[in-house]
UniProtKB/TrEMBL annotation:
Pfam families: Hydrolase_3. PROSITE patterns: COF_1. This is Hydroxymethylpyrimidine pyrophosphatase-like HAD family hydrolase. InterPro entries: HAD-like_sf (IPR036412), HAD_sf (IPR023214). It comes from the Bacteria.
Length: 56
């Protein structure tokens, strides 16, 4: 069975400075390593926020 983690962008994935903290990044990478699929969720248009490219 696949597990999906849906993450709200503002205030959940990103902190107040619009960054992903090292602790959040580490947690997400652990989830991916365990086979979880990460999905971004937002009420905003895709063009209005930058994608977290630093999760590699």
């Amino acid at each position: 069975m696949k597990k999906i983690i849906a993450l709200d962008v503002d205030g959940t994935l990103y902190n107040n400075d619009k960054n992903i903290t090292p602790a959040t990044k580490a947690s997400l990478l652990r989830a991916q390593q365990k086979g979880c699929i990460l999905v971004l969720a937002s009420g905003r248009l895709l063009d209005s926020y930058r994608l977290p490219t630093n999760l590699k």
